[in-house]
Amino acid sequence: MTSVSVPAERPRGLLSRPTATTGFWSWFTTVDHKKIGILYGITAFMFFTIGGSEALLIRLQLARPDQDILSASVYNELFTMHGITMVFLVVMPLSAAFFNYLIPLMIGARDVAFPRLNAYSYWAFLFGGLFIYSSWFLGGAPNGGWFGYAPNSAIDPSLGMTFYSLGLLITGIASTVSAVNLAVTVINMRAPGMTLFRMPVFIWMGLVVQLLLAFSLPIITIGLTELFFDRRFGTHFFDPAAGGDPVLWQHLFWLFGHPEVYILVLPAMGIVSEILPVFARKPLFGYQFVVFSGIAIGFIGFGVWAHHMFAVGLGPVANTAFGISTMIIAVPTGVKIFNWLGTLWRGDIRFTTPMLFSVGFIAMFVIGGLSGVTHAVVPSDYQQTDTYYIVAHFHYVLFGGAIFGLFGGIYYWWPKVFGRMLGEGLGKLNFWIMLIGFNLTFGPMHILGLQGMPRRIQSYPESLGLSFWNLVSSVGAFLIAVGVLVFLVNAVASFRKPKEMEADPWDARTLEWLTTSPPPEYNFDEVPVVHSLDELWHRKYSQTQGGRVVPVPTGGSGEALGSDPHGGGHGGGHGIHLPGPSYFPLISALGLPIAAYGLIFNWWLVGAGIVLVLAGFYGWILEPSAE
Amino acid sequence: MASDAMEVHTYESEHLATSTGLPNIKLAMWLFLASDCMLFGALISTYVLYRGASVVGPYPNDVFDIPYTSVSSFVLLASSLTMVLALAALQRGDVGRSRVWLLATALLGMTFVGGQVYEFTTFAHEELTLTTNLFSTSFYVLTGFHGTHVAIGILMLLTLLTFSFAGRLGPEKAETVEMVGLYWHFVDIVWIVIFTVVYLIPTGNPA
Amino acid sequence: MSEAERATELSSQAGPGAAPGLHPGSGHVARHPTPKEYVRIAIILAIITAAEVAIYYIEAIEDLLIPLLFLFALIKFTLVVLWFMHLKFDSRTYARFFMMGLAGAITLFLIVLLTFRVFAG
User: Fold this and answer.
1) C79 touches chain B (CB under 8 A)
2) Is the same domain home to A493 and A406?
3) Contact, B181 vs B86, CB < 8 A?
4) The pTM is what?
5) Strands A541-543 and A15-16: what pairing?
6) B44 touches chain C (CB under 8 A)
7) pLDDT digits 0-9 by tens, A426-470
8) What is the ipTM for the molecules in this complex?
9) How large is the C-alpha radius of gyration of chain C?
């Protein structure tokens, strides 16, 4: 296989430019979007097992009434960390893994707009996550809920919520920077001929998500800063005695928090929109409707935040307005569901594991969406809020929705990324165990909530009659864990298989399947020229008069796969520009947690952190992106 | 398959063809500035929310020196002028002039920050420190965030100057100066809002 | 080379050998303001700032103070964005992004402040 030639190392100051693009250390200096995507994926999965373990401990504690397996204060730390982990350290980075790996490939680009910045985002995310988790050993983990409501979060005496504010600021920087990077990539680096409306739906959802991130993260940045200042320096942002208003925190948090839930689910919706057509052998029904719905969801998603605050006392006018906007947002979501069903209708369906997860997504997300619509009715929400009914809702959309979609994506793109398939037998076992376990865990929570079980309680008395469904739920949780274990076995087993995967094992529709599995470092031998939506499909198949799909004869009138009549030979006469590896993204990112520790413990560390950040940035700007 | 080793060129200095024809860096900068609007929006609305809500003094009227702060405003606005003149000079090919205007911008920026530091020190002597009351809380954090943005801008300007004096900021680098300029002007327009909302619009002292 | 040509060359053009299907030129700069025009804008900004400070002290128009201050701030903001930041002469794409952030911020935070009844008498 050809290698990209890179000239010999040129010493520059203390560090000579790394050149290796393979090997263990290359992972620390890589700027290749594919490697970065894999790093995100592995890290997210590790946090998934940790967050899942936190959930198992919670369910263990709640399995029987009146238990004291976990003290109340540890319990508070567990549900807080479970939420923080799953939202910020699992679903977001798992989505980022897919975006990073796939966006350039699906749009026919060789990398993202700013490769080193891309690496920086990963390292900042990793360090932020590790920073938050180090709190367990350094004064207590965050314990004020993942939503950190003031004034409790501002006055809690342990260091946990300080770690919370600083840690999420670090991961927020990672995501904001990545959002700008990926948005510019999608807008500006598409292959010739790929107009916006020839982009795969996954790319559209990616674009919407990056814009949501870019505009919502700054708001929570300020909220977290204000919280941090109140805790560390004694300011009064959320201090009622000084005239401050804790409700301000809720606005700032949910102005971010609501777009955040769409950030969490839109990637999975994009994934499902790619998988369904492939395994139904039909184009996505109503492509434009699906795209516009995604955009609408993103836009309206900024207008519903106070539905998390119905019981706070904003008054009937505000509550009504937000109740209406919340009902409205169900519409574009429903449109997507119907279009997905329309895709399946009369399709030539193969129930592979990715397809199972995608259909599972639709079913579970509809359930979660329905309970969501019931929350939109304000008086009804007065009863539901802060009960397990809400816990049921968001787990149906976040687990049954986002996680199922992401698992579908894992199974679907695994052969592309790793050059081997995940086993179908184990895959189906994985799916069914997870589906059953998931519904056993969260289905009963609807009942528990309506029976009045509050959220965030360490235990409940026998007399409340909540015992049976709690036990069922806990059993379900352990079943989920078994399902995840099956996946891990499947994953490890896949690496025992030989790495000999064809470019397009699923007979798919989008450009990433045009190149080898795994792709070469430069993605495509030649940048493809795009003539339609589902470009790859149209290169392979055309339709007869009767509407029958027939393969395009190779060497015939259609373009042969993998070559391009306009390119004029491999390489097309152009050199392939590849940005070189670099230490500086990692170095720069490392300054962030160091400064954060300094803000808590020692001002000298702040100085050290800043020095590292600056040294990293100056090294970065002095180094050309490729030699 | 692809034949021999492929050439590797420098990546960013060559103008790549982009889907919109616009450079990645400029698209990125405008998107970043758009997101920064949200950041300052949150800070400014915190300030507005808490206007007049302090339980104890000192209050704005006790400490604000409008003529003094208006000089700061003039300084920052002037720095936007010098910034755009620096860019124009560089685009014309006049590297020497661009250096002069960049230096002027940096100096004006430092004057602004110096003025803020002096202002805050004066306030502190008048018993208004970070944690004194709600006004101090929202005021110092808002203006502090803005001041930090200015300081980062100054750092970028000084970096540009260093490159310029090293002969590495020629007309082909005009785009870089343009990006720093966009950031700098943004910091200026945020101050336009802050000056009006925080300083000029009166906050009645509680009775 | 004429100013327009140089401006075009220096602005964000797709380079030669652009692959088919791309459209260079949407970042096309029609014209740059001259340094003189920039100075003129700066003088207007200075005058408005002076006016802002002046009306702060004029008791006779107290009722008009806040609307006038907002008007002045808006004019200054617009001048800097359109001329110094070059939005008037650049691709609409940049303006669209910026407006997303600006309009979004103004709308969302106005709503937040409304829920706190900040504007109630």
Assistant:
1) no
2) yes
3) yes
4) 0.92
5) unpaired
6) yes
7) 999 999 999 999 999 999 999 999 999 999 999 999 999 999 999
8) 0.93
9) 20
